């Protein structure tokens, strides 16, 4: 089985929900593979988005590139619908003035069909997510 970036839209993933959207910086930018694009929150926290893989996957490593994110919670679901999310990872990120936060997480028990990312708090009124990468393998397609 080959390892791929499971979050890329070119691998079939999609952002199915985001609590805020700016037409110049839509949530789809998180998974488009383009380092020049990003999703921005529109103030007030928490903010969240859900990535749907359209298959069962095993995530081994996550890399999150963001700006101004203070506390991030990640929940996962193995259901066919976006329900029954379980708390998985919670991280306090370090503020990096003038450059992207680059948070790498080695994942344990990374089986999922959906990931929900919750930006609990930020270092400013707005935050941005530039990319989410999930290294791993496809376990099975939906039957």
UniProtKB/TrEMBL annotation:
Pfam hit, one: F5_F8_type_C
Keyword check for Metal-binding: yes
Cell compartments where the protein resides: Cell projection, Cilium
Record key words, sorted: Calcium, Cell projection, Cilium, Metal-binding
Primary location group: other
Limits of the F5/8 type C domain: 18-125
Any one GO biological process: intraciliary transport
Classification via Gene3D superfamilies: Galactose-binding domain-like (2.60.120.260)
GO cellular component terms attached to this protein's record: centrosome; cilium; intraciliary transport particle B
Superkingdom field: Eukaryota
One Gene Ontology molecular-function label: metal ion binding
PANTHER family membership: INTRAFLAGELLAR TRANSPORT PROTEIN 25 HOMOLOG
Function summary: Component of the IFT complex B required for sonic hedgehog/SHH signaling. May mediate transport of SHH components: required for the export of SMO and PTCH1 receptors out of the cilium and the accumulation of GLI2 at the ciliary tip in response to activation of the SHH pathway, suggesting it is involved in the dynamic transport of SHH signaling molecules within the cilium. Not required for ciliary assembly. Its role in intraflagellar transport is mainly seen in tissues rich in ciliated cells such as kidney and testis. Essential for male fertility, spermiogenesis and sperm flagella formation.
Protein family (similarity comment): Belongs to the IFT25 family.
Oligomer and partners: Component of the IFT complex B, at least composed of IFT20, IFT22, IFT25, IFT27, IFT46, IFT52, TRAF3IP1/IFT54, IFT57, IFT74, IFT80, IFT81, and IFT88. Interacts with IFT27. Interacts with IFT88.
Protein name: Intraflagellar transport protein 25 homolog
Organism: Prolemur simus
Classification lineage: Eukaryota, Metazoa, Chordata, Craniata, Vertebrata
